[in-house]
Write a structure and sequence with these properties.
single chain, alpha+beta
């Protein structure tokens, strides 16, 4: 190999190293920014929970994920009947980056977003989660798929309903953006959040 070819190859490899190092730094910086923003959103949610506790609301109503409107959420819960279906849209901004990317790719693959079906009309297309209300000893519970967790735990959207959570706990999860309730008969549709 000639000296000129060796020098050109050396420059090319040097440029490739700089490009790879730049890409790694940019992706690391992007992930750090995402986590900082996500942490701020979750801190806002926790401040709302603290205001709820400080207001004395927990002695009257369960926490539904907001620090206001407990009465409305409570009466909506009382009106839920077995077999009512709940459709939820997630907030990708509060999910860890791998799960947010998975969710957005899944939405794109399905060709729908929650905004495509604002009233749902019994169809699950466009929603990230579908749950069913069960009543156990007078308490409303929601049977729903597994939700995203820490970044190291794999999560696949649209899974089978395998978990059962109390309705207030299900609704208070920070990742819930919007919820629509469809009566079991399909006759009534109401937006909870």
């Amino acid at each position: 190999m000639s000296a000129a070819a060796a020098a050109a190859l050396s420059r090319l490899l040097g440029a490739a190293r700089v490009a790879v190092a730049g890409a790694l730094a940019a992706s690391g910086g992007g992930m750090a920014w995402w986590e900082l923003r996500r942490g701020a959103l979750l801190a806002d949610f926790e401040r709302g929970r603290r205001r709820y506790v400080d207001s004395g609301g927990e002695s009257r109503y369960p926490f539904y994920g907001r620090d206001h409107g407990y009465e409305v959420d409570y009466f909506i819960e009382l009106g839920l009947e077995p077999g009512d279906r709940l459709f939820a849209a997630y907030r990708p901004s509060v999910l860890c980056l791998p799960h947010a990317a998975t969710l957005l790719a899944w939405r794109r693959f399905r060709g729908a977003t929650p905004a495509d079906h604002p009233t749902c009309h019994g169809a699950s297309r466009g929603w990230d989660e579908e749950g069913v209300i069960e009543v156990d000893s007078g308490r409303r519970r929601c049977r729903h798929p597994e939700r995203p967790g820490p970044w190291w735990r794999p999560w696949i959207p649209g899974g089978a309903a395998v978990l059962s959570s109390s309705y207030p706990d299900w609704l208070a999860w920070p990742g819930v953006l919007e919820v629509v309730v469809v009566r079991g008969t399909g006759s009534l549709v109401m937006t909870v959040r």
